[in-house]
Amino acid sequence: MSMGGPIALEMYREAPQRFAGLMLIDTTAKPASPPEAGLWNGMVTLIQTKGVEALPMALTKDMLTGQTRMNDMALVQTLKGIVLKASKNGALAGAKALANRPDSQPTLATIKVPTLIIVGVEDTIYPMDMAKAMQKAIPNAKLAMIPGAAHAAVIEKPDQVNQAILGWAQQVR
Question: Considering the chain, what percentage of its residues have pLDDT values greater than 70?
Fold first, then answer.
């Protein structure tokens, strides 16, 4: 999910023979644009000056829909708890990796394994257009759009995400 996508694509480039399938969830194959790199570099500064404790406030607004943030405080607290489990070094490394990630778009056309792309319909970090472009570039990729979910679709709408994964997995056996 999210930064796991560039990691999975890098792993695929290095050893495609090790893959039986691939899932890309709320992610992108594109390198960070200058504004996005600036955002992640800003997160580096935030972490260095205020610590990991400052991340939930900075990230939650993009991870969950406004509807969820207003009406499901337990889920908001769960997400904040997950973010706060990151070490300072881990959070710094993650922000730097997102700011400097490679362009994986050329890799997409080389993917030969069944691929599922999942995106929250309300994801503003890596929106549906990016997911649709990845689907178009990966031969025979399937796209599952999750209504009522933002960037953390796996947390916000776990039943729908699980249903999409199970449906896809049954088809690729």
Answer: 99
